Every structure is written in C-alpha cells, then in structure tokens.
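Service request form, structural biology core

Requester: graduate student, group of Dr. S.
Request type: structure prediction, single chain
Budget code: on file
Notes: please return the result as structure tokens.

Sequence provided:
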Amino acid sequence: MKPIKQTTYETCLACCLLMLTGKSGKDQIEIWKHGWEFNYLIGQLNFFGNKYNKKITTYIENKYYFNKLKKQSGKNINIVNSKINLKLIDELLKTGQVIVYLDCYYLYHIVHAPHFVVAVKRIKDKMEIIDSNDSKIKMIPIRDLNKGIISLRNHLKYSPVLIKMD
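Core staff response, request fulfilled:
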C-alpha cells in the first residue's frame, strides 16, 4: 500500500480511503468536501462508496451516532454498532487493513485531536500503521493505539470508529 500525504489537516479520512483502494491522493479534497453535505463521516463514505463502487463496513461505537448514520448511509455502506477495541481490530486485520479513528496525541504527543490512520498489521505488541499526516509507515506500541481510541472516546468525546473495505 502506497502512503498518501494529506494536503490539508482535515483530509485524513479521504487519504485513508484512497490508500485502501490503491488510488492516488488527487481526489482527497473532492471526497473531503462531501463530508459537509450530511455528516463529516457518512458524507465522505457515501460519496467514496458511490464514486469508486466500493462496499464499506463502518463500525460505530456510540449508539446515538450509529442510529443517526444508519439512516443516512447509502447503498454501499454497511453500519455496525460495536464496541471498538483491540480484539475487534485484530479480528478485522485478518482480512486486510482497517481505518482506525483515534486521538493523535498518542502519535505525536503535541495536541489532542481526532485523526484517522490505516492499521496494516499487528506484530506482537506493535501495530504497523500508515499515517497520512506525514505519509509515513510507522510501528507504534499497541498500548498507544489503544490509548488513542480510549482518549478519543473519553477525552475528546468522539465515538470510536473502524472502517473496513469489503
């Protein structure tokens, strides 16, 4: 998988989606702007699923957010309500890469903010990820990935999300 660098600080999800399909980063702004038509997440997923004819399963932890997105999801998007944790990530990684929503503080130790990365594979107590912020492949401690998900939920008050191409 070829890393793609974000052109703005808000195009991490678009870059992750493009990386999972082997596309170039040229459409990231077009994908990102569709996030503002409905909801940041579902707008991008609906547009991407339709444009590239891709089936996408999205795991949403928060029940309220799940119900809202379920009503807005397009034909190529399957929304699943599930607890987001390392066990689920490991299970999903058995069939390919997974987009993970986390608090980027646990990647850079600078500022708390929501961010999407691609989890490529787990090797013992480390996770190989691709980070579109700097377009680098990184090995991070699995505990930092877990802390990033927990902080997204408890500190930033965002629902954890996992995204998988079917």
